[in-house]
């Protein structure tokens, strides 16, 4: 009886121990269920990148192929059309999405997203030796990094600026000043010269949202004007230089040496007009067009040359010019699921290795060392002109209210381009709206 009792006690004790072991094991297994999926995901090391359809996305895909092989990190692109891109990016970032790790943005979008903490600062990654070899990455090699409030929120994959395009078979020397450009354009406009081989002497893109204000900037800044001073918020759109630039643009339209419907012209329409022989010159016009022109089957492709945008001749005989420039950037979503791997992709894509791949596929990397590399000089003669342009080029202000500012500017330029109002009164009214905007933001 005692033996049976001891046996029952023993069996009960063992069962109790097994129950504890099972319970503890169950907790461990439950924890492993929580851990293992995320470990499995990180083992795959996938970075999701939101990009915009276009030549830039094609170049990034080429970079990604090499990056995947060398890093073992897979890149999943989420590609959106140009017509919905900005609206979608803004909606998702402001909502705090984690659907993508890296996002493709123009430098003018950085302020509004950084200010709302929708982007992750990159400085902690750049300044930590565990993630970045500063000497190899060489931040000083960038033509521009577009910081916001002293922090780096994105790095450029490529750079854009404005050139003068001209038909060298009919124009022996490109005009150096805007006044010279006007005279040449007048000569090669059919309505002003019946013997002109081209219908118009000059054209430039003037559609919204991405062309009108940016194209006008090269004129505006060269004439000594501006829209808003970035650091102080002072409105300069009604100052003498701004009115002079607006008056020159108005004169081009009024004298009919540019297309009457230029307000509808975009990048493609301007390029096609060069290729078809409709226009003698395009300025200010994007640097990226030259590679497309050289690869075309146009009978004029070898005659179409590029030069620095025109400027203003000073008293010493020199030329003052301030070309527009901007960069397309890779930024990290503040809610990125895989921030370290996201940085690895950004570092590679904007680095010298990624930039070299980008250049091979028609891109314009934002690095001095690549644009000055002799191995690209014969294939990419535009690189030398980009470097020269960037010596005096300027970027738009980095402002949280940038979209509202551009909307006011574009409305004013539309009135000038359609001869709806005279430039001075148009810019005075736009400047008053800009001052109200700045005051509203400050309050």
From TrEMBL:
<dbReference type="Pfam" id="PF13416">
    <property type="entry name" value="SBP_bac_8"/>
</dbReference>
<dbReference type="InterPro" id="IPR006059">
    <property type="entry name" value="SBP"/>
</dbReference>
<dbReference type="InterPro" id="IPR050490">
    <property type="entry name" value="Bact_solute-bd_prot1"/>
</dbReference>
<comment type="similarity">
    <text>Belongs to the bacterial solute-binding protein 1 family.</text>
</comment>
<keyword id="KW-0732">Signal</keyword>
<protein>
    <submittedName>
        <fullName>Extracellular solute-binding protein</fullName>
    </submittedName>
</protein>
<keyword id="KW-0813">Transport</keyword>
């Amino acid at each position: 009886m005692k033996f049976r009792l001891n046996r029952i006690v023993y069996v009960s004790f063992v069962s109790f121990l097994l129950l504890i072991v099972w319970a503890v094991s169950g907790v461990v297994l439950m924890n492993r269920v929580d851990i293992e999926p995320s470990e499995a995901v990180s083992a795959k090391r996938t970075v999701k990148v939101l990009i915009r359809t276009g030549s830039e996305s094609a170049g990034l895909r080429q970079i990604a192929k090499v990056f995947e092989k060398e890093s073992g990190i897979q890149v999943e692109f989420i590609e959106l059309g140009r017509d919905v891109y900005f609206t979608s990016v803004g909606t998702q970032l402001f909502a705090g999405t984690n659907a993508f790790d890296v996002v493709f943005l123009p430098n003018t979008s950085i302020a509004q997203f950084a200010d709302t903490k929708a982007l992750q600062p990159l400085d902690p990654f750049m300044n930590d030796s565990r993630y970045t070899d500063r000497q190899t990455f060489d931040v000083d090699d960038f033509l521009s990094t577009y910081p916001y409030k002293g922090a780096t929120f994105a790095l450029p994959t490529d750079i854009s600026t404005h050139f003068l395009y001209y038909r060298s078979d009919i124009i022996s020397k490109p005009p150096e000043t805007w006044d010279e450009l006007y005279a040449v354009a007048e000569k090669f406009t059919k309505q002003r010269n019946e013997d002109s081989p081209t219908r118009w002497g000059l054209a430039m893109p003037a559609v919204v949202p991405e062309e009108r204000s940016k194209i006008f900037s090269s004129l505006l800044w060269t004439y000594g004007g501006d829209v808003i001073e970035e650091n102080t918020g002072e409105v300069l759109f009604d100052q003498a230089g701004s009115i002079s630039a607006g008056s020159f643009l108005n004169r081009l339209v009024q004298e009919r040496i540019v297309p009457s419907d230029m307000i509808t012209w975009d990048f493609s329409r301007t390029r096609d007009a060069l290729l078809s022989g409709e226009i003698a010159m395009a300025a200010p016009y994007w640097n990226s067009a030259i590679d497309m022109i050289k690869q075309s089957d146009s009978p004029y492709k070898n005659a179409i040359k590029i030069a620095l945008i025109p400027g203003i001749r000073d008293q010493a005989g020199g030329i003052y010019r301030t070309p527009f420039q901007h960069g397309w950037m890779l930024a990290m979503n503040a809610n990125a699921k895989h921030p370290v791997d996201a940085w690895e992709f950004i570092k590679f894509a904007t680095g010298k290795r990624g930039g070299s791949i980008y250049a091979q596929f028609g891109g314009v990397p934002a690095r001095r060392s690549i644009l000055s590399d002799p191995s690209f000089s014969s294939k990419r003669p535009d690189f030398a002109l980009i470097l020269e342009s960037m010596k005096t080029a300027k970027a738009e202000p980095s402002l949280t209210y940038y979209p509202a500012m551009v909307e006011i500017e574009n409305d004013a330029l539309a009135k000038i381009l359609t001869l709806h109002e005279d430039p001075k009164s148009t810019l005075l009214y736009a400047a008053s709206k800009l001052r109200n905007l700045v005051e509203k933001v400050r309050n």
